Amino acid sequence: VLAATKNWLNSKDAASPDYDRYCCEALWIQQSHHRVDVDLLSQVLKSAKAPEARAAAVRIAADMREEIPQAEELLIAAAADAHARVQTEAARGLSFFPTKPAMKALFSMTNAAPDYWRDYTVQHALGPN
């Protein structure tokens, strides 16, 4: 299944407006087999034009944090994404990391323009007042 998924994704045109979705579909299949291609995940996080695709990749990184050694670093980078939905997913994922870099990334999101869901998630990730 994983090899067929890789071949399927390689057969897609990277210039297609649906390419970000194809990458997410490949990542979801990989996730279901607990074998996420970290290079593909990083590519989506850094290069996907669709914020929904980046948000989906952040969610995968958070959910697979025990299998992806660099998950915290990927989530910290996603915390600086320009889109609030991506930041919301990053905040949820960073809530699993009780480290200073994770907390610093969460605090950095409080400087962004207000967004109800991101702000709610950051508040709960940081814990009770």
Write a structural description.
With 129 residues, the protein is mainly α. Helix content is 66%, strand content 0%. The protein has helices at 2-10, 19-32, 38-47, 51-63, 71-78, 84-94, 100-108, 116-126. The chain is globular and about 45 Å long. The protein starts with a helix and ends with a helix. The model has no long low-confidence stretch (mean pLDDT 96).
Key features?
129 residues, mainly alpha, 8 helices
Secondary structure blueprint with pairings:
Elements: H1 2-10, H2 19-32, H3 38-47, H4 51-63, H5 71-78, H6 84-94, H7 100-108, H8 116-126
Most strands sheet: none
Report the sheet-strand fraction: under 5%
Give the overall form. globular
Share in helix: 55-70%
- Overall pLDDT, averaged? 96
Oligomer: single chain
* Record field, number of beta strands: 0
What's a quick, concise take on this entry?
This protein has 129 residues and is mainly alpha-helical. The protein is built from 8 helices and no strands.
